[in-house]
Amino acid sequence: MASLNEKLIQSVYDGLILHRPQLKSLVDLDEDDDDDGEVDIRLLADLIIRSYPWPIGVELRRLFSAQLAEPDRMRLEQLFKTLERTLQFLAFVQASQILTVATERKLAIGSGLGAEFTRRWSTITLGNLTWLIKHTQDLMDENGLVPFMEEAKQELTADFFSNCNFWIPERNAIGHYEIHLTDEQIQIKCVELQERLMAILRSLAFLAKYKLVSVRSIQVEKSRRGEAHFNHQLNILNSSNSDFKAQDVDTNLFTESRSVLLLRTTKRMNEYLNMSPFVIDTGIERIDTKEKTAIKKDIFLYARYANDTLHYSGTEATDKYDLRALSVYPQMMEDLKAFLLIFS
User: Fold this and answer.
1) What is the mean pLDDT of residues 196-215?
2) How do strand 260-263 and strand 211-221 relate by DSSP bridges?
3) What's the confidence (pLDDT) of residue 242?
4) Pick from 344, 328, 234: which is nearest to 277 by CA?
5) 3-state secondary structure 104-120
6) Contact assessment for residue 139 and residue 109, using Cβ atoms and an 8 Å cutoff
7) 286-320 in b/e burial notation, b at 16+ Cβ within 10 A?
């Protein structure tokens, strides 16, 4: 009988190859080399981890680990964390597009919704994320905006939101220890939540088509009579071990530096979303002051805005970190305030 992880990995992989069929050739090659003709489930797990954007991939890496293979409280908590981080990333993609568009033209927002958007963006919770994704999609439709990830329009269906909404009341209750579950109840909830998480990950498998990168620097190269070329030094944020790979891209177009970008392809640097201030990479920060020595090198995601301070959660770091010493923090604050101003 297949384990919980094996069922999850196989299901998500089947959805993944619909959008990245080239991955199947890697699996077929491994199957040919195996004496039994069976695919190593660890290979599929690694492909999934590396294919999803790193904030999601790192949670899947934890979920697929042997330590969390049993349907206990630890696995249930990681299932919730994976669901929340997946929806968090999706909401940030939508928000980044809204912020980009709003710098060019005014958006029409339904009466009374502006204040609700602002309130829900103040703190990231499962309930707020589901509401924000649904209503941001509606906002984009009403303003005639095509999602940067065009597949989202087809995949964010009523069933998708039903799977997201189903666990909000229980997540709130479990998170605040308002209910005490028996071991048997935990096992049942692990199975139930995994089924819904599988459906959500399969719906969002198109995320694997896009590249999440961190722009370390941009160098300009130009001869006396030739055109300028911009050499981008990138970290590809999809590694299963966080050992991000640097990549050079020569192009006569340039993008924003010292930012985390979502690219359609690394071959065209002009087709991107700047994910700041929602996703930031502290690994590219130069440590040149005493205050910066305490900054953990990690990929951080926006968590809340309170008391005129931005709070972030790391993908690898588990402790709370004060990121106000970052050189880009003033710009991050300016961007977040500009984003909230859209809804006022």
Assistant:
1) 92
2) antiparallel
3) 46
4) 328
5) CCCCCCCCCHHHHHHHH
6) yes
7) eeeeeeeeebeebbbbbbbbeeeebbbbbbebeee
Token pair recorded at residue 80: 């919730």
Tell me how far the alpha carbon of residue 237 is from its chain's centroid: 10
pLDDT at residue 291 greater than cutoff 70:
yes
Q: Which tokens in the block code for residue 314?
A: 């790391």
Distance of CA 215 to the CA centre of its chain: 17
DSSP line for 273-342? EE-TTTEEEGGG----SGGGGG---SEEEEEEEETTEEEEEESS--S----TTSTTHHHHHHHHHHHHHT
Sign of CA dihedral 300, 317, 303, 330: negative
315 vs 84: CA distance, rounded Å: 12
> For residue 308, is it left (φ>0), alpha (ψ between -120 and 50) or beta?
left
Q: What is the pTM of this model?
A: 0.89
Q: Is the dihedral of CA 259, 240, 85, 295 positive or negative?
A: negative
Instruction: Name residue 306's beta-bridge partners.
Output: 309
CA-nearest of 89, 60, 61 to 302 is 89
Buried/exposed 178-204: b ≥16 CB within 10 Å, e otherwise: eeeeeeeebbebbeebbebbbbbbbbb
pLDDT in tens, 161-175: 999 988 887 777 665
| Predicted pLDDT of residue 1 | 41
Distance (Å, whole) CA 9 – CA 45: 6
Q: Residue 67: what pLDDT? A: 92
Using DSSP's 3-state secondary structure scheme, residue 260 falls into strand
Task: Confirm if 295 and 280 have CB atoms less than 8 A apart.
Answer: no
Within a 13 Å sphere around the CA of 254, how many CA atoms are in the beta-carbon half? 16
* Kind and range of the H or E run holding 29: helix 22-33
What's the sign of the alpha-carbon dihedral 61, 66, 70, 72?
A: negative
What sign for the dihedral angle of Cα 186, 59, 158, 97? positive
